[in-house]
Design goal:
By secondary structure, the protein is of the alpha/beta class. Helix 1 (20-30) packs across helix 8 and helix 8 (159-178) crosses helix 9 (188-194). Strand 10 (313-316) and strand 11 (319-322) form a beta hairpin. It has 2 domains: 11-195 and 312-322, 3-Layer(aba) Sandwich (Rossmann fold), CATH 3.40.50; 233-298, no CATH class. Helices cover 38% and strands 15% of the residues. The radius of gyration is 24 Å and the shape is elongated. It starts with 10 loop residues before the first strand and ends in a 24-residue tail after the last strand. The chain is built from 15 helices and 11 strands.
Length: 346
């Protein structure tokens, strides 16, 4: 059933561009919040990237046009803030301050407004360029990705922007739940360093410098990486001895019974596992190992993954998109297409 979403009754203003901010508010809109996208007169920049790109980040929203550099635009913003729960913005810190999009600037209109700022390095961290790939480079993500003898590599999607958008949505809701207005400050740099959790802890506490391993191998678990097979690549993730026993029996491998032994004898284990997996295809191994509860999957393309999971694809007007990943009992979002520029009166 559809019903009222869990965030019904919340009004959230967005002054967002491209990805991190719009993704955060789209997740909230899917869950029932009213999201009002405040755009400049020429429209938010991602409208120029392409219709499907814009739709993938802005469904279920309303749009109004304001010139926030003008007195009239600021007066209209004040009116909206007075009857909204939150404002989320992702711009350079100098622009956020100049356009008076902080809690300190807006609290006189609404003491309980929650202001969320998404920036590269923090609301007071300066205006250095902070696009997704730049952040992956500066936080060590790129240096950890790729083959040991190859160049650093970037994932094929915007991992920093998406991760920061989710953290910003969490921070926004946490502050609303507190019942008090205030500023929430979320930076791409801090989010990505946080996601290096166990790597960072190993370095900070044990001076263990992380480094790249072949096929993206895990630092602690063996075998846990990609493996070539007779046809295609298989992701195998053996995290405990029970998984190993099931896998080893199916692959007809003897020995290496404990996690500690497999870690110490990593090269030997990988050689034996690689030889065993070469006897069947990636799809074949997936079919054999899944019933045993062993974490394994053939590497698929995006098109193959979407064809295998048609239930995640939703219709938003004329657009086919991947739906919200947060499934709430008793509620099914009604996906609406992205708004036309400045088409809504609120």
């Amino acid at each position: 059933m559809t019903g009222r979403g869990p965030l019904a009754g919340l009004r959230i203003l967005e002054v967002g561009t491209m990805l991190a901010g719009p993704y955060a508010t789209m997740l909230l809109a899917d869950l029932g919040a009213q999201v009002v996208k405040i755009e400049p007169l020429g429209g938010e920049i991602s409208r120029g990237v392409g219709d499907s790109y814009f739709a993938s980040l802005n469904r279920n929203k309303l749009s109004i046009c304001l010139d926030l550099n003008s007195d009239a635009g600021q007066r209209r913003l004040a009116e909206l803030v007075a009857r909204s729960h939150a404002l989320l913005v992702n711009l350079k810190p100098s622009a956020i301050h100049r356009l008076r999009l902080t809690y300190e600037a807006l609290r006189r209109h609404n003491e309980r407004i929650v202001c969320v700022a998404i920036t590269g390095f923090g609301l007071h961290g300066g205006d250095d360029p902070a696009f997704d790939y730049v952040i992956q480079a500066t936080t060590g993500i790129a240096a950890l990705t790729g083959e040991p003898d190859g160049p650093p590599t970037l994932p094929g999607y915007s991992s920093a922007d998406n991760s920061t958008g989710m953290c910003a949505a969490l921070g926004l809701l946490a502050k609303i739940v507190s019942g008090e207005g205030g500023q929430v400050d979320v930076s791409l740099r801090d989010v990505m360093l946080s996601q290096l959790n166990y790597h960072a802890a190993a370095y900070l506490n044990d001076a263990v410098e992380p480094h790249r391993r072949p096929y993206g191998a895990h630092s602690y678990y063996v075998p846990a990486q990609l493996f070539p097979t007779a046809d295609g690549y298989l992701a195998l993730f053996i995290t405990h001895d029970g998984f190993w026993r099931s896998f080893a029996a199916e692959a007809r491998i003897d020995g290496f019974a404990t996690m500690a032994e497999r870690l110490v004898r990593r090269d030997e284990v990988l050689a034996v596992v690689t030889a065993a997996l070469a006897t069947d295809t990636a799809a074949g191994w997936e079919l054999r190992l899944r019933p045993l509860g062993v974490p394994a999957a053939a590497v698929r393309t995006l098109s193959e993954a979407l064809k295998a999971t048609p239930e995640v694809v939703v219709a938003a007007g004329d657009f086919r998109l991947v739906g919200n990943p947060i499934h709430v009992s008793g509620y099914q979002p009604e996906y609406r297409p992205p708004p036309g520029l400045g088409t809504d009166g609120v």
